[in-house]
Amino acid sequence: MSAVLLEPGKSELIDNDTVFALDIGTRSVIGILAKQNGDGLEVLAQHITEHESRAVYDGQIHHIGKVVEAVSRVKSALENKLGVKLTGVAIAAAGRSLRTKMVRVEQDIDSGLEIDHLLCRALENDGIKKAHSELKNEMGEEAGDFYCVGYSVVSYFLNGYSMANLEGHRGSKIAVEVLATFLPVSVVNSLYSVLARAGLQPVSLTLEPIAAAAAVIPDSFRLLNLALIDTGAGTSDIAISRDGAIVAYGMVPLAGDEITEAVAECCLADFNTAEKIKRQLMSGGDIVYTDVVGIETSVSRDSILEQIEPVLEEITGRVAQEIIRLNGGVSPKSVFCVGGGGQVPGFTDKIAEKLGLEKQRVRLRGRDSVSGLLVENDEINGPDGVTVAGIARVAMERVGHDFITITVNGRENRLLYSREITVYDAMGLIEYSAMDLVGKNGSDLTVIVNGEKRVIYGGLRRPAEIMVNGRQASIKTVLKNGDSIEITRAENGVDATARAGVFTEGHGSISIYCEDQVETLEPEIIINGMPGTPETELKNGDEISIQAVETAGQLARLKNIDVFSHDIYVNNSPANSEYLLKDGDRLEFKKKDLSEVTKGDGFQASGLSDGIRVSVNGRDIVLVGKSSYLFVDIFNHIDIDLAQIGSGSRVKLALNGSQAGYTDPLKDGDVVEISFI
């Protein structure tokens, strides 16, 4: 098992029976280096360290970097103790969000074939795949986010008869009942991320209650109806044995941290101080601590236990209910408790009370209860040191079978093989983002042009190029052990961009002479109520108005020329503001003396229809060139603050002191008021 090297850079193993096991808990990380010793397990070195701050909640890693620091400290300590290089590790996942499935699979075989270990493993793997398939039928696509993190063989069958072990037998039909456990892939991914950043590869992955059961409920005990409670800081994991097998697993998301939080509340202490107080509860006597306001306080153990009793009641009540549910509605014959959380005084007694058992039937189990475990100078000999020994034992039995090795872009990776694994699955487990494989199209740009929705589409993505063993593949390609994958990451499409000018097509331009200068009149562009240009970059949601410059009045407005104070000449002839421009026209705007303009005088002299004089916001305006006028005509001859309209203001119109509309007729002498509200 490629877990221990003689020195950095070499690949020779110390031996094939040595394993580095890690128990990454909510409050601490425990590591042991152990080897097979006959039927037992000899611990060569061990180390425990606590997280410097809360990085794991209820068994789920939240702050990967902080957990990496703790794992690295344990790894370095063990390497220094033995002078070795650690590269592979056996780990266990907490039972948070645990799902379990019990399945049976059968297989016809050649009756002359002797059943060997590999055939048994293949049969078990078929059971795991069937369990995942059933989970998928129950959960739909959500099941794709769950991985099998461990399983127990409930029973083998040979030609229909129950067997404890199939190896060495012959028969025509073999079967197995498997209890498979599944956790969200996010739990597995976070463990993988921690190991990768600490320079480690997984060689075995199991579930914490499976590991704890392997340590304290050996095969010889499994005929008995027993319950195991592994109460850590974040979760209380449960396993049930009877009829020679582990038949159920479960989890309650209440454990030692809830007790610590209750201590913090009753003692007015921070979390770390409360954790220390909780541990002192196990030794008795008065407890001295400094609270959050800096006051040194002494309190009796019994006083604290009395105040945290409601929390203990809730935890033990929930655990007992789950045990009864998993055990078919009845209490087991006895209960083993491991983990640090179960050491709080009163925990085991309350479990016994709620299960209706005698107190001596619910016992804490420490390292001394782990069959065949050899440890010199054991400094981690309590119940909190049991699970890590079980992790090592599970790894010894199954190492290399739960994982496959694949190479991605030249780098080897070991992946949990709990169901059919595709390229997509593998990339997710080694921290490739799904978007690294798929990519995404560029964002579209949507605008409103003259009241119509217009969409400019973003650029198309370029998917990843995937090769498996030198052949074109896809994210759905199924992988097997030893496959080599080469991936060129996907490229995202470019976000759509556009300038206002792209929408002027169809709004033709014309060339004229204005004041003897050649000008090309492009369409007039208004963006969100403000003047724009063909080069203006558009934003999503912009509202654009595009109008061709068609009349002399529009041209005057663009040039900020007041048509009331200027005479318009086109091709040397008088014209009005509504004259429709044509290619090659020559225009002049000549300033006139309004003081000389009187009704029935200057207008008729120019050959145009009579004009009218109106007062607009206190200023006299002369309207000329039409036989009749409407209120709306005023807007062709005054400056309007477009910014006010774009900001949501409304225009208030008044004619001779009364509310007016855009189509009200105007006559000479009218008084007009225009304002924004």
Descriptive notes:
The chain has 677 residues and is of the alpha+beta class. Among the domains are: 219-370, 2-Layer Sandwich (Nucleotidyltransferase, domain 5); 424-488, no CATH class; 498-592, Roll (Ubiquitin-like (UB roll)), CATH 3.10.20; 594-677, Roll (Ubiquitin-like (UB roll)), CATH 3.10.20. The chain is 24% helix and 33% strand. The protein has a five-stranded mixed beta sheet, with helices on both faces. The protein has a five-stranded mixed beta sheet with strand order 23-22-28-26-27, with helices on one face. Strands 25-24-33-31-32 form a five-stranded mixed beta sheet. A hairpin with a 2-residue loop joins strand 22 and strand 23 (411-416). Helix 4 packs across helix 9, helix 5 packs antiparallel against helix 7 and helix 7 packs parallel to helix 8 (347-355). The longest helix has 26 residues, at 301-326.
Brief overview, please?
Pfam families: FtsA. One of its GO terms (biological process) is cell division. The protein is an alpha+beta fold.
Task: Detail the topology: elements first, then pairings.
Blueprint: E1 4-5, E2 18-24, E3 28-37, E4 40-50, E5 56-57, E6 60-61, H1 64-82, E7 85-86, E8 88-93, E9 99-108, H2 117-139, E10 146-158, E11 161-163, E12 173-184, H3 185-197, E13 201-207, H4 208-216, E14 226-231, E15 236-242, E16 245-252, H5 256-267, H6 271-280, E17 286-290, E18 296-300, H7 301-326, E19 334-338, H8 347-355, E20 362-364, E21 373-374, H9 386-398, E22 403-408, E23 411-416, H10 423-429, H11 434-438, E24 445-449, E25 452-456, E26 465-468, E27 471-473, E28 484-488, E29 510-514, E30 517-521, E31 524-527, E32 530-531, E33 543-547, H12 552-558, E34 566-570, E35 573-575, E36 586-591, H13 602-605, E37 612-616, E38 619-623, E39 629-630, H14 642-646, E40 651-655, E41 658-659, E42 665-666, E43 671-676
Parallel strand pairs: 4-21, 8-13, 14-19, 19-20, 22-28, 24-33, 29-36, 37-43
Antiparallel strand pairs: 1-7, 2-3, 3-4, 5-6, 9-12, 10-11, 10-12, 14-15, 15-16, 17-18, 22-23, 24-25, 26-27, 26-28, 29-30, 31-32, 31-33, 34-35, 34-36, 37-38, 39-42, 40-41, 40-43
